């Protein structure tokens, strides 16, 4: 038996956990709280750990198989013959084991297992303990479907499934309300679901287009087809519906060919003229392409001219015709399709994938749900909204790297402005800066991390948009380590603050009472009580003494996130920055195509370091600013041990996984250098199309760029120190203080007169910008204006028209009208039924008379 | 003097009209019944007259059928009238308006 056969088990273990906890977990807990919780939590964790074990075994199996991917087909999902297309709509339920999916499996199940164990401690005492673990296991199940599927359809099943689990877990405490009594958690859950639905729509469209173009949704087939026809002529407008190519041998009627002459001329004329140059010089070819489109209108108006053009084109390039076989054009027209080039088609597909990714991976413009998603329990924030689910957009792009690279190489640009992979890079870069700036103004410990996650996801999206797939995956992995660590650390802090607060007010109760209290109840009581918010950083301070372990691991996580040498974040972030600054992709020398991305990402990196410094300072340093902070105490071992493991990963993960060459130039990765690069090389094919064919290029600069690394380190250290000693260093913040950025350090101003200028002019301006972005741009304009006024109100209006006018008046009117007419008519008709026999006799008589009259008239 | 076909048809028409008017105007069920009989016999007369005129026996054959059916009708109809009288103590058809809408 093939050892790959164990792969389906990775899906089976979580579903066993779901069944166990969903069906029996509650009974166990009702029977005996203590033992029931242990069973429920540890069973779920065991299932996650078993999946992790399977992922590790698959890692070794794959290594034993010399990294050759293997697909395990479980059963067919769809298998429909479409006779009119001469093709087969076939979607198997199959698991693809390659280096990319195994990487994701290891991250998801590894970090997932740690978070399961952590949640046993965190959720202790919650009324719905087993429901929580049911959802967590269900999430793992769907996430694993997403990353193991060998086709877009399975990916989409997982994509929707994790969205569902996200919804369920954000709204986990659905009974909780705010002071005004509105169900905030439910609203947040719904918001996440709806925002994701927008991206999902784009996903469905992208999948439909993929199937329409390539006749398959299986990754390998789609990529193979795309590659097979990419070399034909990237600039030319040949219709790529490869399942039609098989019928190429069919003779084309000359008459049909003539009717399409002008089409071919319009679409091909320019491209054919430039055929020789098109590949050498993409830019020029693109200009020409634009012209060709302009010419299109003229050519249609002026039939004769178009025909002349065509004559030339054929004369000049008679020999090249066979090269890119215009035959399918005719054939395609005969089948009623559209004349769209592969570049345009792939651009549409990849742009739609980007929209899908902005939904799931919380990028501009659909990031709005992620900060609200922090309403869920903290382990959920760590698992779903930081480490795994939100990275599925990056996974999607990395998985579809062939399509993105083909678009880049085809030189096709949307609206003649920007190619879709470049757009991906800039969306990511802008998101990174934008979310990084918003993180400044947040006081909620989890909201800072939420915006930080959005920002870091921006880094990954920017990386994959630039073609640095390995760098993106690398950052995805290290980010999963340290962001899960940070979230769980913040959960530990919140837990400590809650218990501190509880101790403070709970002296009247016995000690037994304290342990029995459910989390949800505590949240509840405190939300309504004295408005103590255990997540507000202004109430914290000085926690390093009360919670030493949490402090230590949080410090590691924060420094790793800020990108301090030699922690994990340094290596992965630096790889992205190095790629953005160099972009050694094109064979014709170094180009600085992504210098804008580099600038934006550098600013984002500074922001990252600054807000993490601010957070460290506010939470762990200084004096306690609230009684609860004084009484906070360290969390139980089930919570701290996973943190310690993750801290270890955050320290060593970067160096071990993908250590770049430190000295000299190297052609390719080997040995213990760039292990992730070597490993992922087996599933990610970066390439460049030249006249010679497909040339595989190195993915990223292999050698550490000291300039980039040094600059980013200096900036990061400077930002942290600035946050520590510059803005927040002079005195502890108090809970009722308005905005710490406004309260400026007096000693600094005294020492450096220049700082007066800085503080008086720059900081307020910056403050206002950050404030403006956060409240005006983000909240008022984007949330209220665009979402409410532009999207919700017209939608509600349209719904009202549909329900009140169309449905009530139109549809109901017709139905009621029919009834009323029948009613009225019967009222009239019943008058004829008098009950007098002679009346009936008379009507018979009259009938006879009429009949006779009729016959008489007919006869005459 | 040999009677012409017109005379027979004229008599038949008059009898039929009297019968029809009787059915339409009278309220006593027995009178209506008799009027129906008169209409049937008017038709019979027309049948016989035409049969004789065309020298064809089909019409006379039909008359036998009509008479048979009329006899059956009388049997049923009179039984119905007796039954109605028993329950209502009169046979005024205007009182029998259960089918009034």
Describe this structure in words.
The complex is a heterodimer of chains A (860) and B (101). Chain A is mainly α. Chain A has helices at 9-31, 33-64, 99-122, 129-148, 152-170, 184-214, 219-230, 242-245, 254-259, 261-273, 275-280, 282-301, 303-316, 321-324, 327-334, 342-360, 369-372, 378-387, 392-399, 401-410, 420-438, 445-465, 469-505, 511-516, 519-528, 543-546, 548-562, 568-582, 595-620, 627-631, 637-658, 675-680, 706-727, 746-751, 753-829, 837-859, and strands spanning 70-82, 87-97, 687-690, 693-696. A two-stranded antiparallel sheet of chain A has the order 1-2. In chain A, strands 3-4 form a two-stranded antiparallel ribbon. The longest helix of chain A is centred in the last third of the chain and has 77 residues, at 753-829. Residues 234-337, 508-529, 584-589, 689-693 and 742-756 of chain A have low confidence and may be disordered. Chain B has 101 residues and is mainly α. Chain B has helices at 5-25, 29-54, 58-88. In chain B, helix 2 (29-54) packs antiparallel against helix 3. The termini of chain B are far apart.
